[in-house]
Amino acid sequence: MKILFTGGGSGGHFYPIIAVAEQIEKIAIERKYLSPNLYFMSTDPFDERMLFDHHIEFLKVSAGKMRLDAPIKNILDSFNTFIGTIKAIFKMFSIYPDVVFSKGAYASFPALLAARILRIPVVIHESDSVPGRANKWAGKFADRIAVSYAEAAKYFPKERVALIGQPTREAIKPHPRDEAERFLKLESGLPVMLILGGSQGAEKINELVISVLPELLKNWVIIHQTGKANLSEVVNRAKVAVPELAVQSRYHPFDFLPDSAMAMAAGAANLVISRAGSTIFEIASWGIPSIVIPITESNGDHQRQNAFNYLQSGAAIMIEEANLTPHIFIEEVERLRNNPELMKNMAVAAKNFYQPDAARKIAEALIKICLEHER
Q1: pTM for this one?
Q2: Are 364 and 36 in contact (CB under 8 A)?
Q3: Beta carbons of 281 and 166 less than 8 angstroms apart
Q4: Are 8 and 42 in contact (CB under 8 A)?
Q5: Selection from 287, 306, 275 nearest residue 352 by Cα
Q6: C-alpha count within 13 angstroms, C-beta hemisphere, residue 185
Q7: Quick one: which H or E segment has residue 41?
Q8: Which helix (H) or strand (E) segment is 291 a member of?
Q9: pLDDT tens, position by position, 56-103
């Protein structure tokens, strides 16, 4: 079996691919298949260690974004995409995979076009309520289409689309709370807030956290993922905002939480603050109440639509960026802390929203296509 993955350079595209790869490996072992050959074609590897751990070979191609407000850059990026597509055709022809699985975004275009030219079956997955341009285009010829939100199905041919939820990694399943508290050296006896800035828009959340940190630390232990470029600045400003060492010990900033640390943080957390990308499904898999803050300027306003759909499930509270003031944020956080029954109901709603077998379903579909192709 030869399976090629492709997708954009963000965690929202990359980590679901890893989740599917995990299930492919598991099925191959269970059914005693030969070890599958797995490839990832994109503009960058995103996480080389994770690719190595899952025996996925990286194939680099170039690609460019299409911007609505930068025609000069579009010309240059079109050239990059053309070159990347030529390389993708030759690289794909040399391995000739049985199937291509795409998570979308501009970096997937060369691989998808190469697959279409070489008549290789394509399966795509859309994580958002409103599909991106690459997946909308690929949906016209993809053999199978999976979506995380029912609202996304209307953008694709109904006979080829299925609602399955979002693939999530087994490696980030929450650890027991006592183990997580010891691992992260958290003060016990207080609720824990996990703040996930994400790869985009982390600065606005970081600004908010620093502005309310003295107030938050009166009642909460904070685990704060700041983003790799922001840790030093956030730590320095936190020390100024909260000079008392006793209270500082309740604040735990990290530039990035690898899987093991994320699983521990999820095990400790009582509340999650997050953007409204595919992280929503990871939070739902943990069964933790959340406050989601959608990015205002996202393709097709997809983050706001994601947040709205999750809000309707009863698992979260949404605060739009226009309303993201320190006063409103503290008010909502404390309303939740003082209402255990509401928190419990939100946790149950999160679990009900999550569909735990999405990665397995995609892996089964890809393997089925591979086996049919080999006949």
Answers
A1: 0.90
A2: no
A3: yes
A4: yes
A5: 287
A6: 5
A7: strand 37-42
A8: strand 290-292
A9: 999 999 987 765 555 666 667 788 899 999 999 999 999 999 999 999
The two three-digit tokens of residue 257, written as one number: 């939480």
Which helix (H) or strand (E) is 193 found in, with range? Answer: strand 192-196
Q: Is 199 exposed, middle or buried (0-12, 13-18, 19+ CB in 10 A)?
A: middle
CA 190, 272, 18, 160 torsion: positive or negative? Answer: positive
CA distances from 261 to 194, 254, 258, 273 (A): 12, 10, 5, 17
Measured distance CA(176)–CA(116) in Å, rounded: 46
Phi/psi-derived region of residue 104, left when phi > 0, alpha when psi is between -120 and 50, beta in every other case: left
d(CA 295, CA 52): 32
For residue 204, give both structure tokens: 């606005």
Half-sphere exposure of 303 (CA within 13 A, CB side): 21
Tell me the three-class secondary structure of 296-314, residue by residue: CCCHHHHHHHHHHHHHHCC
Domains and CATH numbers, the chain: 2-166+356-374 (3.40.50.2000), 171-353 (3.40.50.2000)
Q: pLDDT tens for residues 328-343?
A: 999 999 999 999 999 9
